[in-house]
């Protein structure tokens, strides 16, 4: 849903948004997660001098691939966020960005797209290396067996790293 900043009342605007995961998945170009359940959000939008401030809370369930064992797992997201939008084009100020400007979003057509707001906040909450559990042991480097299921039978530990095989017989005097 697009909201024109000029149409936001003085007192602000409160929206309850329920967006289907499949609709937002289309915006998730290149992101490594799937949205399993609808995204439930409450957005408070307040008009500022040259833009708008969007604060809110959202809940959903995301599906990831574990970065250690490659198994799919589900994680619930419940997050509170705040985003600031100003009128203008990002390209016009890219060269002169200050540290504080990194937290600013730009409105090119004078409207806030709630789908973009939700997807942007979800992508910020996603871990860089998602793990199915903190204690995930991952896969064996030699045979690829899942070490969470038990020890593998390839005896990679006995062989050691072949790059250091010549040092096996090295003796310090």
Strand content: 25-35%
Termini separation: 75 Å
Percent range of helical residues: 10-25%
Largest sheet: 6 strands, mixed
- Low-pLDDT regions: none
Number of helical stretches of at least 4 residues: 4
The averaged pLDDT comes out at 82
SSE string? EEHEEEEHEEHH
Number of strands: 8
Using only CA atoms, what is the Rg?
24 Å
Anisotropy-based shape:
elongated
Q: Indicate the structural class.
A: alpha+beta
Give your account of this protein's structure.
The protein is of the alpha+beta class and 173 residues long. The protein is 14% helix and 34% strand. It has 4 helices and 8 strands, in the order E-E-H-E-E-E-E-H-E-E-H-H. Strands 2, 3, 4, 5, 6 and 7 form a 6-stranded mixed beta sheet that branches. It has a two-stranded antiparallel ribbon with strand order 1-8. Helix 2 (90-93) links the parallel strand 6 and strand 7 (104-107). The mean pLDDT is 82.
């Amino acid at each position: 849903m697009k909201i024109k900043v000029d149409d936001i009342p003085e007192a602000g605007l409160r929206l309850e948004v329920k967006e289907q995961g499949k609709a937002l998945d289309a915006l998730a170009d290149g992101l490594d997660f799937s949205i399993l359940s609808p995204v439930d959000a409450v957005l408070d939008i307040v008009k500022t001098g040259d833009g708008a401030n969007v604060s809110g809370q959202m809940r959903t369930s995301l599906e990831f691939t574990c970065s250690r064992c490659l198994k799919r797992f589900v994680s619930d997201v419940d997050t509170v966020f705040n985003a600031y939008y100003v009128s203008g084009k990002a390209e016009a100020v890219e060269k002169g960005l200050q540290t504080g400007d990194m937290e600013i979003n730009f409105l090119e057509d004078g409207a806030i797209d709630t789908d973009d707001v939700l997807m942007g906040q979800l992508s910020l909450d996603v871990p860089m290396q998602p793990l199915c559990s903190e204690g995930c042991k991952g896969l064996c480097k030699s045979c690829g067996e899942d070490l969470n299921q038990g020890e593998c039978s390839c005896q990679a530990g006995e062989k050691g790293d072949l790059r250091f095989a010549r040092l096996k017989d090295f003796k310090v005097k």
